[in-house]
Specification:
Keywords: Transferase
Pfam family, one: CoA_trans
Family: Belongs to the 3-oxoacid CoA-transferase subunit B family.
Helix content: 10-25%
Shape: globular
Number of helices: 4
Radius of gyration: 17 Å
Protein name: 3-oxoacid CoA-transferase subunit B
Distance between the termini: 11 Å
Number of strands: 13
Structural class: alpha/beta
InterPro entries: 3-oxoacid_CoA-transf_B, CoA_trans_fam_I, CoA_transf_AS, NagB/RpiA_transferase-like
Order of helices and strands: HEEEEHEEEHEEEEEHE
Strand content: 25-35%
Length: 218
């Protein structure tokens, strides 16, 4: 199991039957592949869908918020983006799962721009992290060059402040509670010293620290 699969599998365990969930582009889209058989969620997309499903037949006018082909499940709803953002901003999305460039110990998130690089904009991330009831960041623990992505303070432009509830990487799971960052799980074969060595942020260790469970749909 590679890093992204491990992360997606662990995040899937946080989603409950009946939840309305927004999955960001990239790694978060893998989460749907690992939902337990008894958990059925409704996927929401900022461009105007409730009830996204797997692609059964590509249609040029049917794409998700990232521009990739998508499917629609029976009973789904399609509406304009104004209605979609009203759902998000009104607190009707139970959880969102987003990728991250940086997360810091104060639950701040930077995930929309790398300084000096051209981007189309932050999309709906800013709305999701303030409107969703639970914000889960799914990202690899370190950058490709080995540098830390979990910092004392984000150095890239922020998407939101104090908005992250949970951070899942291939090495560990963190929760942010009352302004404090807690290590609650480590991946199999990974000890706390390894997590500390690859994490710039300061964090506390939960008294109930456990090993990350590798369960869920295959």
């Amino acid at each position: 199991m590679d890093a992204k699969q491990r992360i997606a599998r662990r995040v899937a365990q946080e989603l409950n039957d009946g939840n309305i969930v927004n999955l960001g582009i990239g790694l978060p889209t893998l989460v749907a592949n690992y939902l337990p058989a008894d958990v059925h969620i409704t996927l929401q997309s900022e461009n105007g869908f409730l009830g996204l499903g797997p692609v059964t037949e590509q249609h040029p006018d049917l794409v998700n918020a990232g521009g990739q082909p998508c499917g629609i499940l029976p009973g789904a709803a399609i509406f304009d983006s104004a209605m979609s953002f009203a759902l998000i901003r009104g607190g009707h999305v139970d959880a969102c799962v987003l990728g991250g460039l940086q997360v810091d110990q104060e639950a701040n998130l930077a995930n929309w721009v790398v300084p000096g690089k051209m981007v189309p904009g932050m999309g709906g991330a800013m709305d999701l992290v303030t409107g969703a009831r639970k914000v889960i960041i799914a990202m690899e623990h370190c950058a490709k060059d080995g540098s830390a992505k979990i910092l004392r303070r984000c150095t890239m432009p922020l998407t939101a402040q104090h908005a992250v509830n949970m951070l899942v990487t291939e090495l560990a799971v963190f929760e942010f509670i009352d302004g404090k960052m807690w290590l609650i799980e480590t991946a199999p074969g990974v000890d706390v010293d390894t997590v500390r060595a690859r994490t710039e942020a300061e964090f506390a260790i939960s008294s109930g620290l456990k090993t990350m469970a590798e369960r869920g749909a295959s």
